[in-house]
Amino acid sequence: MEKCRHGLDIEKACSRCVGDTMQTMPAVSPQHQRMIDLANRIASPANEHEHTDTMSEDVFYPDHPPRTESATFRATKKAGHANRMPCAISGHTEGAEYHHLAIEWAFTGGVDWRVVKGVATGEIAQLPVLDLDTDQPTGDTFAAKDSLLWALCKLAEVRGFDWRAFDPAKPETFVDSMQNMLVLHSKFHRHKNHGIHALTFPVFIFQAFPRVPGFVFAADEMLQVHATTGQKEAA
Q1: What's the per-residue H, E or C state across 86-103?
Q2: Would you state the pLDDT for residue 42?
Q3: What is the rounded CA–CA span in Å between residue 153 and residue 149?
Q4: Chain-centre distance of CA 96, in angstroms?
Q5: Cα(176)–Cα(77) distance, rounded to whole angstroms?
Q6: % pLDDT > 70, the chain
């Protein structure tokens, strides 16, 4: 497949090629010049560089029955909606959804919840070092407090979860609890280029931090910002 000089397939629209073309077009009117300036800004945001990636997952989930909402999850959502809990990224209360943060429901049956409780309560102080090829215990151990599991358990505890009262035979009481939820607007839950289910974690989590003025994170924001700018300039 033939490619443009920016490396994209020639049949695909390349915003940089469009911007280059617009830069060479003579302006025939002030309105036309504004269109050229707008296209240039859309094609080349200042002090930024674009990152694209394609990720593929190939893992196994434990067998489980069709998803149905547990009594815990129904109570969690009911309480959240009643309290108008805001999206943790945008602050919006409308369109809020509930994302399982530390562990998703589909993996519930693959977790040894007795060990989880032991780490959370301090009864288990050491965890096995895992072989990097098989992910199986090597016979060595390391401090549980240095593990991500310990940090996740403590986060839930800080948010009010009672690990000592937790019954490992009823994991849904943690998995579907408010302490394991991240309240997100659907945009930041499921949408392209913003949702936690659509991005890698290092990219997604940036959206939780305050931005320097003018920084654009995703193309949809850039188009909206410049569309608004163009409307103001045309007025």
Answers
A1: CCCCCCCCCCEEEEECCC
A2: 52
A3: 6
A4: 15
A5: 9
A6: 74
Q: Residue 159 and residue 153: Cα distance in Å, rounded?
A: 10
What six digits make up the tokens of 127? 């965890």
Burial 151-167 (b: 16+ CB within 10 A, else e): ebbeebeeeebebeebe
Q: Using one digit for the tens of pLDDT, what is the confidence trace for 123-158? A: 999 999 999 999 999 999 999 999 999 999 999 999
Round to whole Å and give the CA distance between 31 and 187. Answer: 34
Residues counted in the chain: 235
**In the structure encoding, which two tokens stand for residue 5, read together?**
């000089």
Domain residues of the chain, as ranges?
15-48+215-234, 57-103+171-214, 112-169
Q: Which of 68, 110, 87 is nearest to 191 (CA)?
A: 87
